[in-house]
Amino acid sequence: MRAVAQLALAAGLAVVLLRDPAARAQEIAPPVIVIVDVQQILRDSAVAKNVQVQMDQRTDRYSKEVAVQENELRRTQDELERQRSLLAPEAFNAKMRDFQQRYDALDHGVQATRQALQQAYNDAMTKVESTALQIIADIAAERKANLVVTKAAVLFTAQGLDVTSEVIRRLDEKLPSVPLAVAQDANPLSPAAPALKTAPGKN
After folding, report:
1. Residues 78-104: pLDDT tens digits?
2. CA distances from 41 to 117, 147, 169, 182 (A)
3. pTM score, two decimals?
4. Gyration radius of the chain over CA positions
5. Nearest residue to 178 via CA among 123, 135, 136
6. Nearest-5° angle of CA 136, CA 139, CA 142?
7. Are the CB atoms for 47 and 175 separated by under 8 Å?
8. 106, 103, 77: which is closest to 92 by C-alpha?
9. Which of 50, 130, 168, 189 has the greatest CB tally within 10 Å of its CB?
């Protein structure tokens, strides 16, 4: 009997919901979907490509600067080896300490530059992503969409739901480039970094 009463109550509630306009208004609105490929935006947009080009150029330049210093240190080390038998132990040890300090300074500078470059790249791409997300929100509002889905989660999509190309177009117009702001003191050859001396015996 109790089960019958519960079924009757449920049926009555269903009838009320169907007849009551207020109840129908509380029903969930049908989904209006837009689909976006965020990874494509962060890869193919002009600003993303610009940031990557800046990163490659900075990395290449720093690599060449470090190579020059490494060659200088190798020459210094070779010169020290030649002077080992000619110098008093105290003088040789002093030159070795100087060499080690210069080597450590270069190693520290390289690590600092690598970290600074990565941080600058991350900061620039964060700005790109933030701007892209705002554009996606604008497009969703224009289309009165109540659901934005990443393309990676979609197996099939009807034509017209994917707004990736439109996002890229607007992003290219709104944010054509973002400067890669690398801390100046992170550069191994910046004034803040220890300058390398000439090789011992060649002063």
Report:
1. 888 888 888 888 888 888 899 899 999
2. 22, 19, 10, 24
3. 0.68
4. 32
5. 123
6. 150
7. yes
8. 77
9. 168
Contacts 24+ apart (CB under 8 A), 169-176: 170/135, 170/138, 170/139, 171/41, 171/45, 171/46, 171/47, 171/128, 171/131, 171/132, 171/135, 172/45, 172/46, 172/47, 174/131, 174/135, 175/47, 175/127, 175/128, 175/131, 176/46, 176/47, 176/50
> Which residue would you say has higher pLDDT here, 58 or 154?
58
- Give the three-state DSSP class for 30: coil
Among candidates 116, 104, 92, 97, which has minimal Cα distance to 185? 116
**CA 114 to each of CA 56, 107, 121, 190: distance values in angstroms, whole numbers, following the listed order:** 12, 11, 11, 14
**141 neighbors 191 (Cβ within 8 angstroms):** no
**For the segment 62-82, what is each residue's pLDDT rounded down to a tens digit?**
999 999 989 999 998 888 888
